[in-house]
Amino acid sequence: MIEKKTCCKNAVILMPEPVAEPALNGLRLNLRIVSIVMFNFASYLTIGLPLAVLPGYVHDAMGFSAFWAGLIISLQYFATLLSRPHAGRYADVLGPKKIVVFGLCGCFLSGLGYLLADIASAWPLISLLLLGLGRVILGIGQSFAGTGSTLWGVGVVGSLHIGRVISWNGIVTYGAMAMGAPLGVLCYAWGGLQGLALTVMGVALLAILLALPRPSVKANKGKPLPFRAVLGRVWLYGMALALASAGFGVIATFITLFYDAKGWDGAAFALTLFSVAFVGTRLLFPNGINRLGGLNVAMICFGVEIIGLLLVGTAAMPWMAKIGVLLTGMGFSLVFPALGVVAVKAVPPQNQGAALATYTVFMDMSLGVTGPLAGLVMTWAGVPVIYLAAAGLVAMALLLTWRLKKRPPSALPEAASSS
Q1: Domain 28-211 sits in which CATH superfamily?
Q2: Which CATH class is domain 227-418?
Q3: Which of 26, 167, 176, 301 could pair with 45 as two cysteines, CB 3.0-4.6 Å apart?
Q4: pTM of whole model > 0.70?
Q5: CA 166: distance to chain centroid?
Q6: What's 19's DSSP letter?
Q7: Tens of pLDDT, residues 137-159
Q8: Distance of alpha carbon 267 from alpha carbon 62, whole angstroms
Q9: Where do the CATH 1.20.1250.20 domains begin and end in the chain?
Q10: CB atoms < 10 A from the CB of 144, how many?
Q11: Is 27 exposed, middle or buried (0-12, 13-18, 19+ CB in 10 A)?
């Protein structure tokens, strides 16, 4: 033990020198992060499991219209959007572990709602109401589990690695959704809605049991900023994120229609390319944000995304569209963590949960409105135009981020001193 002498009046006291925790290497750091974000994986798995089943169940098995089938799915997204700011606020006050466990309990209760809906299948309206209630609870649970797991991960590995924590959260999100949909179809084929419900409940319960013994991190003490103040500090970063998310939205929603309009095959492979590029870029450049800075990385990503969307919109051959989709996935991959790092650091530590949640709402809203608006543009001007329009929106995000870099908002000096 290293000791140093400190004098207090006439006494000399030997005090142990604080030893800093050794720097985590890449593997150890990633393992620590994954050990926390796996709870977000579990929450998104409970989202993915019923995603390909419930619309058909509501429409075909229960006999309701396509409107009600779509509404049952959308209820979860609306609940997530409305509850996310509250999730961030509670994470700041109570600590992220409690919020994660609360969110996972919501995921468990959503499965219980599906189970009760199956039991009440003889009364279609009651069954539909129970399904809708389960979806609302799932949306609240996901917003709490997702926000809490990010902040818990940051508390475990330190704020220096917040970009990597956010990146891993995105990776497990995509992985869980990709795994959940086909697994949910298998569960439904095996045991009907009851089998699907029990699987959802089992996943959530296992995650809760794994989370409870894990050490928690302390909630930051200090007076929280009001929501309006938090919004005022992060909204510009959120706007840049919302504009850039349009590119992701038109790829995910309309690439199949784009290929059909062109008379090409391979739309599913194009979506696979997007996902591979998205996840691969996050894995290949884990330290890019720390080395170059969040705003610089975001601007580079915007440039790549713009090129990709322009290639898709002007594609005369399938290979051009595939390269465009690949570049769009690469470009969009690091946008969320790159801007998120800067947004979270724009507020004091005791408000970072609220900042992250508020920032994320902009992406939720963007993806919610991109589909309908792009559909209107597509009806009026054709499918390729929506990719050119999305490229224009991403260019606006690039310009906004460049302005933020040249002239930071007035709140940044205060935030820098507190972070």
Answers
A1: MFS general substrate transporter like domains (1.20.1250.20)
A2: mainly alpha
A3: 176
A4: yes
A5: 8
A6: P
A7: 999 999 899 888 888 888 888 77
A8: 31
A9: 28-211, 227-418
A10: 31
A11: exposed
